[in-house]
Amino acid sequence: MICIPMNFWCNHFLTPELGEFLIPLPTNGMYALNVSRSGYLFYSSHFSLEKLEDPTQAWAMDIPLQPIKVGSKVILNNIFFDTDSTNLKPESLVELKKLSIFLKTNHTVKIELGGHTDNSGQKAKNITLSVNRAKSVYDYLVKSGISPNRLKYKGYADEMPIVPNTTAENKAKNRRTEFTVLEK
Predict the structure, then answer these.
(1) Which domains, ranges and CATH numbers included, belong to the chain?
(2) Taking each helix axis from N to C terminus, what angle separates 123-143 and 93-105, rounded to the nearest 10 degrees?
(3) Do residues 41 and 70 make contact, with C-beta atoms less than 8 angstroms apart?
(4) Is the pLDDT of residue 16 over 70?
């Protein structure tokens, strides 16, 4: 996955009031995207520009940011683990740093880190895996200087799917790490 600092590509906004900008990216790559603004939850995603039908065609993304509110959730789309592992993959570092900066910038925010699995395998194993994955993110944040008093972690296994566990693609969406704002 390629992570390109936006300020490298984006020298000016097309419309500053809407936050619109144009970024040229090489095709045939995987990209991580993080968007942030003061007073809002950050947004993260990853996408592929591989196998585009027309690589010269402009591709638009609409990214509405949510204000920071108690109960708001953010899926950390760029947190990665190997199968059946709680070790954070190196590709997760950009997202982890973004979360750490978010918490340092918003120094009164308290969050719960939630680990989620799909419904494959043994329930007890999935509970343990989801708890330990959330704890891996918790441990990173504490090591980066975030007070443990501002963090909680919990494993939900397959109890809170965001889509039905009926296809491989849906199961991948349900295997996730997210955070919930507990205090603003």
Answers:
(1) 73-183 (3.30.1330.60)
(2) 60
(3) no
(4) no
Residues in the chain: 184
Q: Give the pTM.
A: 0.80
Residue 4, pLDDT > 50, answer no
Beta bridge partners of 113: 153, 179
Three-state SS for the chain is CECCCHHHHCCCCCECCCCECCCCCCCCCEEEEEECCCCECCEEEEEECCCCCCCCCCCCCCCCCCECCCCCEEECCCCCECCCCCCECHHHHHHHHHHHHHHHHCCCCEEEEEEECCCCCCHHHHHHHHHHHHHHHHHHHHHCCCCHHHEEEEEEECCCCCCCCCCHHHHHHHCEEEEEEEEC
pLDDT, tens digit, for every residue of 127-167? 999 999 999 999 999 999 999 999 999 999 999 999 999 99
